[in-house]
Amino acid sequence: MATPNLQTSDNFLELQQELADVEEKIAYARRFYNHNPQAYNIRILSIPALLVARLCRFGPVEYFQAESTDRDAVLVSTDLLS
Fold first, then answer.
1. 14/8 Cα distance (integer angstroms)
2. Each residue of 13-46: b (16+ CB within 10 Å) or e?
3. Residue ranges of the domains in the chain?
4. How far is CA 46 from CA 2, 16, 31, in A?
5. Contact 12, 80 (CB under 8 A)
6. Which residues neighbour 37 within 8 Å (Cβ) at sequence distance 6 or greater?
7. Burial class of 12 by CB neighbour count within 10 A (0 to 12, 13 to 18, 19+)
């Protein structure tokens, strides 16, 4: 039988791994999302799409940028681990 300290340590390591996985998934989603505006911006600068884009007044779009308040560290409670 594992001691409580070892169980808590294992749970904490599992929590750290899950948090790292979530951060990686968010980074992947941001890259995936930003690929579309990048492709669009390149397309409207290429002929013949350039002509249509100018006629329809299509302009470049911005990439996704998280607000500074959204980038703050998330507080994680470890009360349930003990």
1. 10
2. eeeeeeeeeeeeeeeeeeeeeeeeeeeeeeebee
3. 4-62
4. 64, 45, 23
5. no
6. 60, 61, 62, 63, 64
7. middle
Task: For tokens 């890259």, name the residue.
Answer: 31
Query: By C-alpha distance, which of 43, 33, 38 is closest to 61?
Result: 38
How many Cβ atoms from other residues are within 10 Å of residue 81's Cβ? Answer: 14
- Is the whole model's pTM more than 0.85, yes or no? no
Separation of alpha carbons 32 and 15, rounded Å: 26
* Cβ–Cβ < 8 Å for 19, 75: no
What's the pLDDT tens digit per position in 21-49? 999 999 999 999 999 999 999 999 999 99
